[in-house]
Structures are given as structure tokens and as C-alpha cells.
Amino acid sequence: MLKRTICFFCLLVGFASCNSKLEFSKYQSLSEGNWSMDQPVFFEFSDLDSVQAHHMFFNVRNDNNFEFSNLFLITELEFPDGNTQKDTLEYAMAEPTGQWLGKGLGSVKENKLWYKESIVFPDSGVYKVRVTHAMRKNGDVDGISVLKGITDVGLEIEKITQ
């Protein structure tokens, strides 16, 4: 009886942890937690509901080698017809006290960052997302060529449910 109760509890937890809204999720690991400015992270996806609206997020994992309290990203979303939307985004990564935002135990924290809200993918075909960092030190014109402390960058797409 105890064995059945434990199995039932494990199944219940497993089903509860599934995100039924999740349509796409993929991560790109960055070699040794170093993100070169000239090495964008790419994602491709297709076959999403062409009528349903979606939310898009970037999932960024950082460790204690990340030296900044914010993160600037340049993103490009290319539609199957070739049209492209380009954005420059800024995200807070730490409290003013220096405490990391995000979730996780130990030195690696994961931040789920808004990218696009209520977006519809009306065209069939492949959509492409390109992400580069745009970090600079205050007063410097040139960007940081290798950003340390970003271990993974992910893209997540969730359908909006009523």
C-alpha cells in the first residue's frame, strides 16, 4: 500500500510540474560561461498555432562570474517571409544590494525574461530568433567582446490560455 501511495504521489507531482502552455523550449549552452559578442545565439521554430497568441521569453542562466547588474540584448525575430523585427532590450539581473535575481540554488541563477507579449505567428514556415549581447562598461564606446558569466541562453514560447 505504501509503495502505491508513493508512486501515486510521484505521478501527481510529475503531472503538476508540466507546463501545458509550453509550445517551444530550447537552450544553447555557452562555452565555459563566455559569450562572445560576435557569436550570436540562434533558435528556429515552426508549426505553432497560426491563430493563437503566444508569449515569448528568454531564459538566461548566469553564475557569479557575471559582473553586471543588468543585461542588454539585441534580438532579431525573422518571419518566414523574410521580414525581421529587431529590438534592443535591457533586463535587471541583480538587486541594488548585489543579490542575484532569478531562481536556482548555488551560484547559477536562471532568469525568465519577457521578450514578446501576445504575439501571433500567422505564417507557416520557419521563424528564426538571433540574440547577441550588447554589454559595455560605462563610458566605453566599444562593447565587451567576451561577456563572462552567462552559461546558457534559452528561448521559451507559451500559448496564452483564457
Structural commentary:
It contains 1 helix and 10 strands, in the order αββββββββββ. With 162 residues, the protein is mostly beta strands. The strands form 3 sheets. A 4-stranded antiparallel beta sheet has the order 1-10-4-7, with no helix packed on it. The longest helix is centred in the first third of the chain and has 16 residues, at 2-17.
Total beta strand runs: 10
The overall pLDDT average reads 87
- Spans where pLDDT lies below 50 across 5 or more residues: 4-17
- List SSEs in N-to-C order: HEEEEEEEEEE
DSSP helix fraction: under 10%
β-strand amount = over 45%
List the strand order in the largest sheet. 1-10-4-7
Class by alpha and beta content? mainly beta
The first-to-last residue Cα distance is 39 Å
Number of helices: 1
Overall spatial form = globular
Rg from C-alpha positions? 18 Å
Largest sheet: 4 strands, antiparallel
